[in-house]
Amino acid sequence: MKKLCYLFLFLAFACSDDDNQTLEPDTIAPEITILGENPQTLNQFTDYVELGATALDNIDGDVSAAIQITSTVNMDVAGAYEATYSVSDIAGNEVSVIREVIVEEDTAPEITILGDNPQLLMQNTDYVELGATALDVIDGDITDAIVITSTVDMDLLGTYEVTYSVLDSAGNEVSAIREVIVEENPNSAINARFSKNFISETLDYCEQSYCGTRQLVFSNQNEGFVVSGVDLYKTIDSGENWEHLLNQDIVGDLIVISNDIMFLNIYDGVIKTINGGATWTTFNKPGPFTCPTTSFLNTGIVYFADEQNGFFQDHCDKEKLYKTNDSGLTWQLIHNFTSEIQQYSFIDANNGFVYADDILYLTSDGGVNFNVVTILPSAFSSVIEKDDHFLFPSGTENVPKPSIVDSNNTLEAYDTNDNGDIVVTINHQNNPINKWSLYLYESASSSWIFVDYLPDFDQAYSSYKSLQIVNDYTMFVGRSSSRDLLKYYEE
Hints:
The structure is a single chain. The protein is built from no helices and 41 strands. The chain is an all-beta fold. The radius of gyration is 42 Å and the shape is elongated. Among the domains are: 74 residues, Immunoglobulins (Immunoglobulin-like, Sandwich), CATH 2.60.40.10; 74 residues, Immunoglobulins (Immunoglobulin-like); 172 residues, no CATH class.
């Protein structure tokens, strides 16, 4: 019988260094190197630029691809942020480093120039600084930090610059320029009219908006009436003394036929006096008392050509024109135009005009028939205000509005005299001061003359919408927020 013999071999392997020492476990973390600036400075509202980092491990080598980046950076908001770079090697050793990211404001403040630009001023007058405001997205209102430099010389005609500059806390700077034009001052001429001579007459004290001056009716420089929202006054000495004639809710104009005969449009009708305002008689107006669709009071526009013959434009249906031939006892609808009546007037019972939708209509039969015309006959004294000029009756030249008039400088009121002179008030809406000015058109020289800046108001609703040029040497301006009357005259 055979015997089987087996050889068993046992193999063993061990690793050691040259000194036959066993290696310790890997406990050394990788080393991260931040690339680029640290801190990194970026401008607000730009794209964030990641500069990156590298990582080397003593065992694993280059482990840059394993870096994890987390960031709190918000490029829309200025401030200091952190970008964190983290990495682990195979043995699990982890390390993190931080880059500081500073987002700086890079938006300059915004300057808003107040008032007119260009600003027109008259030679040899005081320079009026209208000012500016400045807002910054971070610092807020920095108006107080504005530095103003100016080349303006009010003694010399010319065009100048006023520069407004401001710097925010981040060093962002901005400048804005106002152009200032110094023009020849007509009032410096020897024969200048209304050379800033005026007096302010106060009828009586009233703080309410409804009782301010709304209409001036002067027959000459001494005799005239002032109509407020609730009172009627009369003067015979150019405003030095006033007689109170009436207290009523006044909604329209006073129509003066003579020293004794007058009509007045009030809340609930038309009143008439035949004794200079000592007593009054009330007549009804045509149409409904209030407008059916709006519930507004049907004030209408009343006009009388003489003691008997009058006209009424309906306020509810502004295309309708009524007529009376018995002082307002009865009314008849004489015409219903296709568009709203903008202006109308009659010089007698038969001859009149209506201006509607920029079309001029003329009648010579009391409104039975109207014909379209391009200009008023010379028998009329009325002037029609159009978009950019005043339309005079035939025989006189049409007059462009003052060049200063635009969307920010609006013509609020005007009046004319028999010589073709025009006086206007202009509202400078953007001006913080000198918000109202008075200009005169002299027909003799065919030129507009700056007369004065009117006193500013404390009340936002106030205006200068009543004025009258009485003759070559006198005109009056009424303040809507009070019963003050400004009188301009030439000595």
